[in-house]
Amino acid sequence: MPERIIYLDHAATTALDRRVLEAMMPYLTTEYGNASSIYTLGRHAMQAIDGAREQVADMLNCRPTEIAFVGCGSESDNLAIKGMAFASKNKGNHLITSSIEHHAVLHTCQYLERFGFKTTYLPVDEYGSIDPDAVGRAITDQTVLVSIMFANNEVGTIEPIAEIGRICRAKKVPLHVDAVQAGGAIPIDVIALNVDMLSISAHKFYGPKGVGMLYVRQGMRILPQLQGGSQERGRRAGTENVASIVGAAAALRLAYEEMEQEAPRLIALRDRLIEGLLTIPASRLTGHPTQRLPNNASFCFEGIEGESILLNLDLLGIAASSGSACTSGSVDPSHVLLAMGLSPEWARGSLRLTLGRENTEADIEKLISVLPGIITKLRMLGG
Ligand SMILES: *Cc1c(COP(=O)(O)O)cnc(C)c1O
């Protein structure tokens, strides 16, 4: 194994930033109070949570009372969708989502189908873009929720959320946005976007694993999905993970502070990578050519297995992904790539490279120098 791993899987997770760890340290050691306790140690914990909530609200442009801290991005998606669906049972039983959502959304909708809900899974075009007008056309008088992702985790396509938000607001149907990939990467303003609920997760922007956030617009009623104490204004029972909540806010603040510098740097690296890898025969870029996350370069190579590429890269100390982390290990081609109209032969040969803070130009050049040989070798071996 080479000494330094070239980590190109930032869409799966990111390393905890040292500065974030420092902000968390007191709450992992001396400040261990339960935020519900009335003595000083407990009040310190509550003050830390309140401060974190204010910071997150400030960055998303909402009120602190509209932010709930939860256990992860998946839980945030679950709470938004189940919480709204079950709270709206007397209004209707129809949900709208897209065919390229994360499984935290897709499997939640499928679960709700067992309770009498019906889901419309909207198609996408060849770039993975959702047509806002198709959202409008799918809305019926039975629709209780639309859930559309901000940016796709596999191919990086950024969806027209502001336009979708405008349409949903006009039809008075709540919109939930899975912004877990977008959080910390591009600016998010819940007012400008007209969204009613929005999910992010700290480990995708150099914060700790195991803490998510859900924005719920004031006046929206959702049913809690975890019963117990009245933490998080009754939305999520359980003693607060103070250190991680503090870390999530610190990580988001750093991401916002550095975004103006970091996003153009990543875009330049991404575009160099795309240019370099598309010289490989029978290769193609997946996702939208311009409306895509600054750090996402994803490809398909005809006639080979993505898993084989990953194993060859791993031998060189390069960490990458094929489709989403959750589906790797299974041989099924990605539901996202199939929804974009790729044939299974192309979709099986997918490679997702997602860049981040530690990556340099040298990392990119290394990949451009080794990948063509790996693809040629695998094709000679017959996949
Ligand atoms: C990672 C991810 C999730 C799940 O977040 P966790 O914190 O890992 O549970 C949900 N949606 C998208 C788009 C993601 O990328």
Task: State the gist of this model.
By secondary structure, the chain is an alpha/beta fold. The chain has helices at residues 18-28, 40-60, 73-87, 103-113, 132-138, 161-170, 231-234, 242-277, 306-315, 335-339, 344-347, 361-380; strands at residues 6-7, 67-70, 94-98, 118-122, 143-149, 175-178, 197-201, 212-216, 283-285, 296-301, 318-319, 350-354. The chain has two domains: 6-14 and 259-380, Aspartate Aminotransferase, domain 1, CATH 3.90.1150; 18-254, 3-Layer(aba) Sandwich (Aspartate Aminotransferase, domain 2), CATH 3.40.640.
The hetero molecules present are: pyridoxal-5'-phosphate
Secondary structure category: alpha/beta
The count of β-strands is 12
For CATH, the homologous superfamily of the largest domain is named as Type I PLP-dependent aspartate aminotransferase-like (Major domain)
Mean pLDDT: 96
* SSE pattern: EHHEHEHEHEHEEEHHEEHEHHEH
Radius of gyration, in Å, reads 21 Å
Beta-strand level of the residues, as a percent range?
5-15%
Compute the separation of the termini in Å: 24 Å
* Number of helices in the DSSP assignment: 12
- The 3D shape can be described as globular
Helicity range: 40-55%
Largest sheet: 7 strands, mixed
Under CATH, the topology of the largest domain can be stated as Aspartate Aminotransferase, domain 2
Number of domains: 2
Which architecture of the largest domain per CATH?
Answer: 3-Layer(aba) Sandwich
Kindly provide the name of the CATH class of the largest domain: Alpha Beta
State the strand order across the main sheet: 2-8-7-6-5-3-4
Q: Which regions are unreliable across 5 or more consecutive residues at pLDDT < 50?
A: none
InterPro entries: Aminotrans_V_dom (IPR000192), Aminotrans_V_PyrdxlP_BS (IPR020578), Cys_deSase_NifS_bac/arc (IPR017772), Cysteine_dSase (IPR016454), PyrdxlP-dep_Trfase (IPR015424), PyrdxlP-dep_Trfase_major (IPR015421), PyrdxlP-dep_Trfase_small (IPR015422)
Family: Belongs to the class-V pyridoxal-phosphate-dependent aminotransferase family. NifS/IscS subfamily.
Domain Aminotransferase class V: 6-367
Keywords: Iron, Iron-sulfur, Metal-binding, Pyridoxal phosphate, Transferase
